[in-house]
Amino acid sequence: MTAAAGKRILLIVGGGIAAYKACELIRLIRKAGMSVRCVLTDGGAQFVTPMTLAALSEQPVHTSLWDLKDEAEMGHIQLSREADLVVVVPATADLLARMAAGIADDLATTLLLATDKPVLAAPAMNVRMWQHAATRRNVERLRADSVTVLDPDEGPMACGEFGPGRLPEPEAILAALQSALKPAFPSSAVEKHISTSLDTNGAIGKHVIVTAGPTHEPIDPVRYIANRSSGKQGFAIAEALVRRGARVTLVSGPVALPTPSGVTRIDVETAGEMAAAVESALPADAAVMVAAVADWRVEPSASKIKKRGSTPELSLTENPDILAGLCGHAQRPKLVIGFAAETDDVVENARLKRTRKGADWIIANDVSGDVMGGTRNRVHLVTADGVEDWDDMPKEQVAALLADRIADALA
């Protein structure tokens, strides 16, 4: 179970082809230990049925404001307020416009206007509709009204076009809604407030540098020295920061991951190239150094080294310490965060690393065993005030929580 276990979600399913993804979201919400009650709009009913949502949620599905039986037993006011969070998936251009205008002409919009609970909307629409000035105004209006509006994913759409407008994947929406539920994670040294707004003012307009992935130090044209890293955690952090309004420069080693929407990406191969890219991205308000930088390099051979019955001697040279160099830089960001992948004495080694490097925070995780390249992480946030031990969770949720903390620190 997660820290959000026991929370109640009111899920409004809008009209659009992406409505089918609401079915998977319901499954994930329940798997995370939360309950979910569904409101199905007329448009949504063109793509999924009330019976499907009822079977998945094991709750009655509400479709009409004029259902007198429901009004007598519960009432739309009570329905709108008994949940801990209201989630709109997919939030179509039409639904966003009606929400922004305060229209209440069906059950969904009436509930949204009557609720006193946080609201999170995950948009899905044609790329031109998402980029239209009217939609941008509506999104800005909703965010100003404290509605969390996620940015859509970028990619091919059912209409055949390509660009921003795809519904975020259910796993990403789950991470966002869990963050919005203000989870309280235990701390071994001090209790910290974790901000949960996905549009935290502290991040808006701030420039954050994120490094991700491994570096490759060539030995010859076919061999290299590297540290193991999938890049997933760093990319998730970059995406979470953009969703909070930050301007993100992602410096990535060699990984096969798509660039998150709204992120400026710089691809590098070696530690030296990464160090130069980080320096060229300055000034910045914060830096999150997630990359698994190779510790050593060699003078590479121009030709492939042949096996001739003996082991070649490699003269190793230590690579630049990018984290320490940034902490001591004349343009040092206000907040510098390092990552520490450890196998023994994880927290103690992270404490020592924070002091030795001069970082503000260190995110430590135990990588002993077969955990590299996975989709989950269990980390410890090490600061000058103490250590917070976070639950095991998807990397997207780790990213969401860390982005909230960064936004608080930059506010």
Structure description:
With 411 residues, this protein is α/β, with parallel strands linked by helices. It has 2 domains: 8-180, 3-Layer(aba) Sandwich (Rossmann fold), CATH 3.40.50.1950; 201-410, Rossmann fold (3-Layer(aba) Sandwich). The protein has 14 helices and 22 strands. It has helices at residues 21-31, 50-57, 68-73, 76-81, 93-101, 107-114, 127-131, 133-144, 170-180, 232-243, 271-281, 322-327, 346-357, 395-410; strands at 8-13, 35-40, 61-62, 85-91, 119-123, 148-149, 153-156, 162-166, 207-212, 216-220, 223-226, 247-252, 264-267, 286-289, 296-297, 317-318, 335-342, 361-366, 376-377, 379-383, 386-389, 393-394. The strands form 6 sheets. An 8-stranded mixed β-sheet has the order 13-12-9-14-17-18-20-21, sandwiched between helices. It has a 6-stranded parallel β-sheet with strand order 3-2-1-4-5-6, sandwiched between helices. The protein has a two-stranded antiparallel ribbon with strand order 7-8. α1 runs parallel beside α2, α1 packs across α9 (170-180) and α5 (93-101) crosses α8 (133-144). The radius of gyration is 23 Å and the shape is elongated. It starts with 7 loop residues before the first strand and ends with a helix. The model is unreliable at 183-202 (pLDDT under 50).
